[in-house]
# Entry
Amino acid sequence: MAEYKQAKKHLEQYEKSSRHKQLLQTQIEEVKQKNILHEQTLEKIRKQLEKEENFSFLSFLRGLTGKKQQFLEERLTEALTEELKLVEAQLKLEDLQDDFVSTLHLLNAATKAELQAKLTLVETKKRSWLKQHAPSY
# Structure
């Protein structure tokens, strides 16, 4: 009976790890998409800053009205915020990928087919034992 419970527990653990693997794959893809968005936003801000640094009529007007410094500070603040979000997303991606590898190692330790075969064998032994030890009426 203990062997049956153990085999069933291993199969349940395998199925749980399989579901966890799927969840991790989804999360990894979401974080990768966020990374792309953060990189695109950073590139957009960099282009705005480069454009402002080049002489243009708008840049000249901002310089006259005192808005140029404010504009640059706002863009730099946005850039720093996006850089932090990007670093955070990259760290999260690394953690998810490490967790994914660990889950794969668990899944590779025993395949589902092996676990089901073991469970079937234990169930067969159990039925056989019950038939042998069944009370006769």
Q: What stands out?
A: Residues 2-53 form the longest helix (52 residues).
